[in-house]
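Hi! If you just cloned this repository, the fastest way to understand the data is to look at a raw example. We've pasted two of them here, unedited. The first protein comes first, obviously.
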Amino acid sequence: MTNELKESIRAYEYPAGTWVSIGHPTVAEVSAMSAFDFVLVDTEHTAMHLETVENLVRAVDAVQEPTATVVRVPWNDAVRLKRVLDIGVDGVMVPMVETADEARELVRAVRYPPEGVRGVASGRASGYGRDFEEYVRTANGTNLTIVQIETEEGIENAEAIAAVDGIDALFVGPADLSSSLGMFSEWESPRLADAMKGVVEAGHRSNTPVGTLTVDPDDVETRLEQGFDFLIVGKDTSHLRTANEEAKELYDRTVSRIGDTESGGRN
């Protein structure tokens, strides 16, 4: 088994992803058609059920693009993780990892015995049993495993977390990190920038790539200059809201301009 996204991240090739929080396959499918390297499906802060996630993964797989699917689970929980992995995703992202021990628990949760505690069963990941034995023999270490650094404790332990065997990448969650630091949404704060830089440096000392989310595409250059190795560039709800607002503003300006012209002509 190979995982092209994992290899790309580990090789520091700057893969780009997009964030999906709308639980409809069309959104995932259109996102994959845009030639992103991966789609991140968020189940931490959305109402998605497992059946929905599976259909989103199918939608991405159906597109004729080499787009991978990573699922952010709600918590570092072995039961949630094994159910997502059985769908056949390319990777998982786990929020709020604060210590190396928690990172080791995560690695054990995504690996079969004797290296881990993942339950063994056939499912979509193994072709519904067609490739069952081969899948179980080769799955360990194949899935991309990303941990989120989102708290002060996580920052303090970032280097130790990054050094845990089986952790493929760190990911800075800007919103939660800013809240943890007592400066929620102060995106231009030097303290927040220093905290993010600290995570990047900690990851690199352990030869572990570090990524983050840029809701505003205008922040891409800044994040890359800060040393991030991969980015999730925007999210579906933000793109939809921004495009709608821009369209409505353009419509209102045009109506006003044409209305003023016609009004002057009538007079």
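Ok, and the second one:
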Amino acid sequence: MDAHCVWEAGARLGEGPVWSPSRNALFAVDIRGSRLLRYSPADGRGRDWPLEEAACWLVERADGADFVAGLRSRRLVCLTLDGDRLSMGPELLRLEEDTPGNRLNDAMADTAGRLWVGSMDDAEQDALGALYRVEPDGSPARVDEGYTVSNGPALSPDGRTLYHTDSPSRTIFAFTLAADGTLSGKRVHIRFDEEDGYPDGMTCDAEGHLWVAHWSGGQVSRFRPDGTLDRVVRLPVSNVTSCAFGGPGLDQLFITTAAQDAPAQGTPTGEPLAGGLFACTPGVVGLTPGRFGAP
């Protein structure tokens, strides 16, 4: 199966795709380009907004106040889009004030309204990153550590398994998730070979299969619940960053990519669509995106 480019967004580092049912649109961020991205499948149009500070991810809020965004400075803030007017603030939380070389890198909300937020070493050298749980009332807890570049996280349909990745070690971990948000039983779920590239962003479908983007691998792979490979979606770009189900029926898989570190255009291996937003119809549906805050 192949994915096709639906918007040549030119993202330096496209990341964090999330479907907004209320806006019937796919949102994402360009971390290195400090932009908010929006794609509307109904008319096939893309739109972007400059951000005063780079956002690393977005999650919709349960109170209807648009999004909570994780910023490069490790702050969580409200992000409001009123028509075509974008505003940032107020601040909700600060993480890792004692680790200025870190930044946030990926997040998701579960069905209880909790956020799961990863951090990373912005220089991608040291295992200074961690995984946090942020309760609906905004109280944080550091629940795992030792990540150089954290990615994911993703949640199984029954809410009992949380997946999280350390990209440089090419390892996707699985945790048992209790109803109260406690993690236990950390274990290696999938380990990439060198020729696979690096596991990046990911999402689960309604059948419990895990879809994983391959940085430096040019594809998204679907893995069965036991961690074995089921199928592959190929892209004409090397650096595939994340994926999310969207569309009114959650039957479209949207895939973000990066122009950063891609082969130069005009060369035999150039990638003119690097940084674009891609999509495919995989024949399965995704899960309703979680929202942050009390349900």
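That's it. A detail worth noticing about the second one: The domain at 4-280 is CATH 2.120.10.30 (Neuraminidase).
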